[in-house]
Amino acid sequence: MDKQMTTAEMVAQLRDGMTLGIGGWGPRRKPMALVREILRSDLKDLTIVAYGGADVGLLCAAGKVKKLVFAFVSLDFIPLEPYFRKARQEGALEVMEIDEGMLLLGLRAAAMNVPFIPTAVGLGTDVLRHNPEIKLIASPYADGRDWVAMPALKLDAALVHVDRADARGVCQIAGPDHYMDDLFVRAAARTYVTCDEWVDSAWFHAEPARAHQVFWERNLTTAVAHVPGGAHPSSCAPLYGFDVPHFKAYAASAQSEEGWQAYVDQYVACSHSQYLERCGGLEAIRRLPLPVF
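The structure assignment produced for this chain is given below.
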């Protein structure tokens, strides 16, 4: 079984108006090569579900996003992602802003194929006031309480980046945290994966510990592409950290009217190999230090 595709072939399978879940967390292990491929496409009116970083900002700046379901959109050391901030302040998109835990539960409900999961998260907060589509439900048990019924966040497709993968769609995440990528995958009808390193299937059997870094079954992977450095400028620990100078220049581009087009011309309107060259090459990316917390 061979599930190899190019990123262009993956994006060609997406359609206007789809709900896309984007894996990773802020500036960490985002499928940025796939995001740039979407920017080069005609896709529009997307609903994006994400623990957002520059993936969300880029799609907002390009006018691709109709609705955003999110808990935060941040570059960490730059607390508010600049292009997301601009889109939000201008009222350019619909939003469903929820707690990080509520987003997790919405993905988990979709993964479990149930309509909602009851939770105490959100009770007594403005999350419910600003999201009237989120309902309360009375407990059927003796506690007699009302609980938040966090609705399932069903995805048409999930986009994720992993450390390594094989042609069958077996994916390894070797970093210290796989975030919610497995839930994004399980909540989605289709999953498109990019990987930094391509391995033979026998590689996964060479060391038993590697099996513990595989978080979903290969039948859930629709297609996979070998894209070295495909998470840049976000990180892909332990292979490389996020690119602080690049993010600073990116944030600065949001401060001028010409900045967005200049960024697109330099880093989007090009092939992935050209992108790597313009960022100093793959070896330079692999030398980016891992963040310390």
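Interim note for the steering committee: The chain has two domains: 7-98+153-287, 116-151. Residues 82 and 251 are 6 Å apart (CA to CA).
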